[in-house]
Amino acid sequence: MQSQRVSRSEAPPAATVRTSVRIPLQFSDGYRTDAQVFTFEGLVDGQEHLAMGLGPYREAAVPLVRLHSECLTGDVFGSARCDCGPQLRDAAEQITNVGGYLIYLRQEGRGIGLYNKLDAYALQDKGLNTYEANEALGLPSDARDYTAAAQILHALEAPEIRLLSNNPDKAVQLGRNGITVRDKVPTGVFVTASNLRYLQTKVSVTGHGIVLNPAA
Ligand SMILES: [Zn+2]
User: What is the model's pTM?
Assistant: First the structure.
């Protein structure tokens, strides 16, 4: 009985919507969508995370949700060292099509920050994989915490979602924070010569549910 009590999921501290504003988006390939951007008060980590309502997000009975962790080099500059830019672009379209939220989390470099991420890239160029490089720098391999994302979903009155993700940890963390993940929808996989090793490591180290075509 006691252990059941401890493992039961509970809602995190309440956050509230601070501002909601319409922003038309246009991606580098020309794809356009309108985002209703929400900001929040009371997020546990004090970061300026965003939620974007896309497509018929108010009408969706169970909204499609992507938790995207900020990646300056991939999202803004189109870095080919990771697949964040194409993942973000793909998520925007998939969510727009059915209605839901793109939650943009300001946890750069899996939570270690931009400079540390670039230090880790330098070590990767010497042969370490993305997780080994973080360890060599004395940093956690993945410092991301999705409590604030759960707070955001509660604030948006979306306690039941379909999760657009290949990362098993996101669904587990949301579940612990009172969010019901009804369904997991896989994201696209975007392989380039520069990010193949990074993607292979995601599969072998953290159990990402993606299939890589070695010929790609
Ligand atoms: Zn990235």
Answer: 0.85
User: For 55, what's the count of Cα atoms within 13 Å in the CB-facing half-sphere?
Assistant: 18
Rounded CA-CA distance 60/28 in Å is 27
Tell me the C-alpha distance between 153 and 146, whole Å. 11
What amino acid positions are annotated as catalytic residues?
142, 144
Residue-wise pLDDT tens digits, 158-189: 999 999 998 888 999 999 999 999 999 988 77
Q: Would 197 be classed as within a structural domain? A: yes
Q: Around ion ligand 1, which residues have CB less than 5 A away?
A: 71, 74, 82, 84
Domain of 177 in residue numbering reads as 2-107+144-206
Q: Which of left, alpha, beta for 108 (phi over 0: left; psi -120 to 50: alpha)?
A: beta
What's the structural domain count of the chain?
Answer: 1
Return the C-alpha torsion angle 161, 83, 199, 184, nearest 10: 10
Establish if 121 belongs to a structural domain: no
Judge whether 59 lies within some domain: yes
